Amino acid sequence: MVGRLTVITGPMYSGKTTELLSFVEIYQIGRKKVAVFKPSLDSRYHSSRVVSHSGNGVEAIVVSSPQEILEHVEEDTKGVFIDEVQFFPKELVDVVKKLINDGIDVFCAGLDLSHKQNPFETTAYLLSLADNVIKKKAVCHRCGEYNATLTLKISGGEEEIDVGGQEKYIAVCRDCYNILRGRS
Ligand code: ADP
Ligand code: TMP
Ligand code: MG
Ligand code: ZN
Questions:
Q1: Domain CATH number, residue 46
Q2: Which end of the chain is less congested by CB atoms within 10 angstroms, N or C?
C-alpha cells in the first residue's frame, strides 16, 4: 500500500512544528518507526532537534540535501517527518514521491509565504502533491485576533531566507500587515 502525504503550512507561530510533533507522537504511541528531519540551514535552538516556539522538541536528523533523507530511512520506517521544508530545494518533492510510493507516510511542515508574501517554491509543490493539507493560523501580533495568515519582518533587512524568531518576525492578519506596511 502507498503512503500518504500531509502538509502543514501557515505563517510563523501558527503551530506547524507543534502539529508535526503531535503526529510524531501518534506514530510513536502506535510503535511505528519514525524518522524526523530538518534542514541544516535552520540553526535555531538545539541543532539536532526539531523544536517549537513553546520549547517542545524531538531528536532529528539534520540533512543538507533532500537525497540525504533517503540514506536514513530504513526498511521498517513507517513515518517520515520533515520540518522547515521551505528551506529545501525543489528536489525534496521527488524524494517525498519516492517515500510515499514506497508505502511510507510523509508529514511536511513549512512556511507557505515569505515575509514579502512570495510563495516558497518547495512548499508550493508539496501542497500540490499532498493528500491532506493543514493550513494553520496564528494570533495576530497587532489586533490580537486568531486570524494571522502572514508573517511580517520587523528587523534584520529584506532577505527572504533569514533564520530567526521573535526578534525578527511577527505573525499578522492581512489588515494589520497592510497597516504596518503603510498600505492603507
Ligand atoms: P510554527 O512552527 O508554526 O512557527 P510552533 O509550533 O513552533 O509554530 O509554535 C507554536 C507556539 O508558538 C504556540 O503554541 C504558542 O505557544 C507560541 N506563539 C508565540 N506567538 C504566537 C502567536 N502570535 N500566535 C500563536 N502562537 C504563538
Ligand atoms: P517557523 O515557521 O517554524 O516559525 O520557522 C520559520 C523560519 O523561517 C524561521 O527561521 C524564520 C525563517 N523565515 C525566513 O527565512 N524568511 C521569511 O520570509 C520568513 C517569514 C521566515
Ligand atoms: Mg516551526
Ligand atoms: Zn490583525
A1: 3.40.50.300
A2: N
Q: Quote the domain boundaries for residue 41.
A: 5-136
Tell me, in angstroms, the distance from the centre of ligand 2 to residue 163's CA. Answer: 6
1 Cα: distance to centroid of ligand 2 (angstroms): 35
- 93 belongs to a structural domain: yes
**Ligand 1 contacts CB of residue 53 (under 6 A):** yes
In order, the DSSP letters of the chain are: ----EEEEEESTTSSHHHHHHHHHHHHHHTT-EEEEEEETT--SSSTTEEE-TTS-EEE-EEESSHHHHHHT--TTEEEEEE--GGGS-TTHHHHHHHHHHTT-EEEEEEESB-TTSPBPHHHHHHHHH-SEEEE--B--TTT--S-B-EEEE-SS-S-SS----TTTEEEE-HHHHHHHTT--
Ligand 2 atom closest to 114 (CA): 18
Tens-digit pLDDT string for the chain (184 aa): 999 999 999 999 999 999 999 999 999 999 999 999 999 986 655 578 999 999 999 999 999 999 999 999 999 999 999 999 999 999 999 999 999 999 999 999 999 999 999 999 999 999 999 999 999 999 999 999 999 999 999 999 999 999 999 999 999 999 999 999 997 6
